[in-house]
Design brief:
Shape: globular
Structural class: alpha/beta
GO biological process, one term: nucleoside metabolic process
Domain Nucleoside phosphorylase: 4-272
GO molecular function: catalytic activity
Largest sheet: 5 strands, mixed, barrel
Protein name: Nucleoside phosphorylase domain-containing protein
Organism: Ceratopteris richardii
Helix content: 25-40%
Amino acid sequence: MLGRRRFYVGIVEGQRVVAVMTGLGMLNAGITTQLLITYFNISGILHYGIAGNADDNLNIGDITIPQYWAHLGLWEWERYTGGALSWRLFKSAKGEDMKEEDLRCIEFGKYNVPVGNASNLLSKVCYDEEEILSVTGSPEIVEKHFWVPVDDTYYKLASQITTKDLNLQRCVDASKCLSHAPQVVMVSRGASASIFLDNAAYRSFLHSYFNVSPVDEESAAVALTCLTNNIPFITFRALSDLAGGSNATNEVSTFLNLASVNAVIVLTEFIRMLPSQLLTTLTK
């Protein structure tokens, strides 16, 4: 036991693994990932769990494998009256290059009800990059990252997973079944923040502005910690709900266990496909 967390060492599909539960949220996930990297001689991290679905092209039960992850909980909240030296202007004043993500803000006035005057005291939130201290960089010199890629070799291998070869669950019981058979889907982007998302408007914003499919509370912390330590990783997230995108009650209470089992099935298949090496598995 380390940091009050239990680490389970064993064999899965002929591979040596260390398994541990991250705990809820970005802080827990980051701490757990760093403990793994510090105290175990690992060659890669496989993260898995459930997620909300921000993509209308996907269905509850699908298992998503994003190529990139971002933390969308690091904000600069602008004042209503304007005139503040915002972080974007501050970066420009320092001579730093502006990036696409520098312009990504959500203006609350656009979501007023009834629609009309776009003025809102909440003004707008703009998303900032994370600053990390990489083991491959210079001491005390920060690197800025927004979209963190998963390991390219892992991603290419995961793309070979065939849904028809897997016994993915479709029904919780005789009265509760998914409308579509679950699929393993390679997607472009996933996003995390220590927020349980159950809001249709914000869900739509995340997908239209960032092309995000799964939304969760841990994966970006795992991604950033692995990036900091130069450790390859990949994440498998099964969609348990529509993140507020339906008129019904949030679906997570119905499909959480089904989605969790399907995530484990896909993870196990991925481990089976890997060449022999020491791995670590991280679950929410």
